[in-house]
Design brief:
binds iron/sulfur cluster; Aconitase, domain 3; 17% strand; alpha/beta; 26 helices; seven-stranded mixed barrel; Aconitase, domain 4; 3 domains
């Protein structure tokens, strides 16, 4: 009976409201005449605020929804990491609510430096970031948000261990939020302003994604691991291939994977631009829920699935595209440098290194992060280390391990894995992001070094300067198994599957394939109590959240100006060439400390961008030809009340959910970003901050525009009046410096609500106005 779907009191905030979801889904099913649905659709549509309204234009056919219709959704939960939580909460505070509308959590992970090891690094990082952590903690207390303090772990690992459940829909202010899809959730990475929608109970909007099916057959064996599924897929699909899609895995191969392995695969779905990724309910999910202390939830999930088949695709469900991967044939892959889709099978890596002139010497190996720090990953890595230890082989290069959570760290300590790592020269860093997000205080190679160097990591992202702040560090992404084996050769030409290493005694040594345990035989232990927050925190309105006006880390927000109702007339401040990720638009590393201070962080705006006209990085030219850094010219034009526009190429804003990449340009006087194509999260972030994100109707028009040109919208009022839900087009006039002018056509994807954001000046202004009504 449905009464069985209600969890015991202590688990209720962590169990999706299955009864309500199933009711919603049955309404949708009626509207589409019982057409079979994919799992992704079932979870998404069951979270609709009003299924009848969202499906009004469906004409009884799901094909009229997918990829076309904006959906208004009610997510179940929100998670925020320390860097992005600051701006999310500063925005939430402006709405005047006393508590959040859904359960939420804050995770202090991005601001922790990795250098000497967990203990020293954590003490120093807490001291350096005290003001920010205190702010986040006081927000948590005031609004009833769970606060996971520094050292407790990385957001996605903690979400997997505590909050992700099959059928859940959640938002996270981090692009790797889809990690939770490994446990059958729909988990979507968003900017802080989107998180505020969910936190305030305002419907959250998403264009119904298409669904890309990945059929897994066969079974992994030997050196192949779940990481290779996604590193291979990234090579097939490229960084843009998943845009507009949810990736849904199916096929008998799925049954052979561990829950944490599925999480690794979903985590890196962010690298192909997918909205999110998910897996159907498996016994591995049940095992993981039980082992992570959620047996009562596992029982409900089991019952729901048995009764309704809610947690798998319907028989006959159609995917918009299908890709098949045979796990039995899958080889380990190595992806990089500088882009996660440059995928090379390990057997071809030496040849590719020679062809491309990449460094043959590897300078460091790093494993862990939110992508690959499961018990299975760690135990497999240790199985390699133990083989080396047994024959007296020592690592040739520095080796770092970042556990994903206190639970993982304490469990691998109890089981002797940490001891093996440390005895063999590894530095075990804090349970935090550290080197994955530019917080690697590296001493062996200076940040400014002009020589290239290679690192091998089990992380998920490898844009320039991502790890150690050095643009010439080439990060090759691969499985923890391959990284661990590579530290014993330090040579890119080495293939641990086929090659041997000469020992000091002259003998040849070849590793056997790694072995690991899916879950710890003796169960997980929680570790140090001080890293765990109250399970169900209640709001405490009496708590004061202090932001000092003198602070250089935190700054209260002033609302952006609403649209004046006139045409936008903007000068081209910069024409960007090539890849322009959120790391180029709003750099991380040292800048992370200013995430809560919009003015200070805005000095990093587009400093990584390449000026198409000069080939220079971070250089822009005033109308009279004077040279400035890009943010300097933005500030100058803002002071002169000269609105500006940036022109760029494909997949602009690829990468993270970093909303500062939208907030800072808006703060510095930007009005329009006109590009060949956008990455989804960034495009939404621009809309949320009241910018006009446009794409060229004809890509060749990019070539006709130069910096300094005056670009003026034509009949913007019409767009505001006419367009809605499925976007539309907008003509703009381009006036060159010599006075000649021509017209081009651009497109936008704004829904009716998003047009309201533009009119109000930002989504927060719009929500604030609604709450006041
Ligand atoms: Fe942290 Fe890196 Fe994971 Fe992002 S990808 S959450 S920076 S470990």
């Amino acid at each position: 009976t449905q009464a069985n779907y209600v969890a015991p009191q202590d688990y209720q905030s962590r169990t999706p409201p299955y009864e309500k979801l199933l009711n919603n889904l049955s309404t949708v099913k009626k509207i589409v005449n019982n057409q079979p649905l994919t799992l992704a659709e079932k979870i998404l549509y069951s979270h609709l605020v009003n299924p009848e309204e969202s499906f009004a234009s469906s004409q009884g056919n799901i094909a009229n929804i997918r990829g076309l219709q904006y959906l208004k959704l009610n997510p179940d939960r929100v998670a925020m990491q320390d860097a992005s939580a600051q701006m999310a909460l500063l925005q939430f505070m402006t709405c005047g609510m006393s508590s959040t509308a859904v359960p939420a959590s804050i995770h202090c992970d991005h601001l922790i430096v990795g250098k000497d090891g967990a203990e020293d690094d954590l003490v120093k990082s807490i001291a350096t970031n005290k003001e920010v952590f205190d702010f986040l903690q006081s927000c948590g207390e005031k609004y009833g948000i769970q606060f996971w303090g520094p050292g407790s772990g990385i957001i996605h690992q903690i979400v997997l261990e505590n909050f992700s459940v099959p059928g859940l829909m959640m938002l996270g202010t981090d692009s790797h939020t889809p990690n939770a899809g490994g446990l059958g959730a729909i988990a979507i990475g968003v900017g802080g302003a989107d998180a505020v929608d969910a936190l305030t109970g305002t419907p959250w909007e998403l264009k119904a994604p298409k669904v890309l099916g990945v059929k897994l057959t066969g079974k992994l064996s030997g050196w192949s691991s779940p990481k290779d599924v996604i590193t291979k897929l990234a090579g097939v699909l490229t960084v843009r291939g998943g845009t507009g899609y949810i990736v849904e895995y199916f096929g008998e191969g799925v049954e052979t994977l561990s829950c944490t392995g599925m999480a690794t695969i979903c985590n890196m779905g962010a690298e192909i631009g997918a909205t999110t990724s998910t897996f159907p309910y498996q016994d591995a999910h049940r095992r993981y829920l039980i082992e992570t202390g959620r047996g009562p939830i596992a029982n409900i999930v089991d019952q729901v699935h048995k009764d309704t088949n809610f947690l798998a695709a319907d028989k006959g469900a159609e995917y918009d595209k299908v890709i098949e991967i045979n796990l039995s044939d899958l080889e380990p892959h190595v992806n990089g440098p500088f882009t996660p889709d440059l995928s090379t099978p390990i057997s071809k890596f030496s040849e590719k290194t020679q062809q491309e002139g990449w460094p043959e010497k590897i300078s460091a190996g790093l494993i862990g992060s939110c992508t690959n720090s499961s018990y299975q990953d760690m135990s497999r890595a240790v199985s390699i280390i133990k083989q080396a230890e047994a024959v007296g082989l020592k690592p040739k290069i520095p080796f770092f391990v970042t556990p994903g959570s206190e639970q993982i760290r304490a469990t691998i300590e109890r089981d002797g894995l940490i001891n093996t790592f440390e005895k063999n020269g590894a530095i075990v860093l804090a349970n935090a992001c550290g080197p994955c997000i530019g917080q690697w205080d590296r001493t062996d190679i200076p940040k400014t070094s002009s020589e290239t160097n290679s690192i091998f990591t089990s992380f998920n992202r490898n844009f320039r300067a991502r790890n150690d702040g050095n643009r010439n560090t080439m990060n090759f992404l691969t499985s923890p198994d391959i990284v661990t084996a590579m530290i014993y050769s330090g040579d890119s030409n080495y293939n641990p599957i086929t090659d041997s290493i000469k020992l000091e005694n002259g003998q040849e040594f070849k590793f056997q394939p790694p072995q690991g345990d899916e879950l710890p035989n003796e169960g997980f232990i929680k570790g140090r109590e001080e890293f765990y927050p109250e399970p169900n925190p209640q709001p405490k309105p009496q708590v004061e959240v202090n932001v000092s006006p003198e602070s250089d880390r935190l700054q209260l927000l002033d609302p952006f100006e609403p649209w004046s109702g006139d045409e936008l007339s903007t000068n081209v401040l910069l024409k960007v060439e090539g890849k322009c990720t959120t790391d180029h638009i709003s750099a991380a590393g040292a800048w992370l400390k200013y995430k809560g201070h919009l003015e200070n962080i805005s000095y990093n705006t587009l400093i990584g961008a390449i000026n198409q006209e000069t080939g220079e990085v971070n250089k822009a030219y005033d109308l009279n030809g004077d040279q400035y850094s890009i943010p300097e010219l933005m500030i100058k034009w803002k002071e002169e009340s000269r609105p500006w526009i940036v022109i760029a190429e494909h997949n602009y804003g690829e990468g993270s959910a970093r909303e500062h990449a939208a907030l800072s340009p808006r703060f510095l006087g930007g009005s329009i970003i006109l590009v060949k194509s956008f990455a989804r999260i960034h495009e939404t972030n621009l809309k949320k901050q009241g910018m006009l994100p446009l794409t060229f109707a004809n890509e060749e028009d990019y070539d006709k525009i130069s910096s300094g040109d005056l670009i003026t919208t034509i009949d913007l009022q019409d767009l505001i009046k006419k367009d809605g839900n499925n976007g539309g087009s907008l003509r703009v006039n381009v006036t060159k410096k010599d006075g000649t002018s021509f017209e081009i056509l651009t497109k936008h994807t704004m829904s009716k609500d998003q047009i309201e954001f533009f009119k109000a000046g930002s989504a927060i202004n719009y929500i604030g106005n609604l709450k006041k009504q």
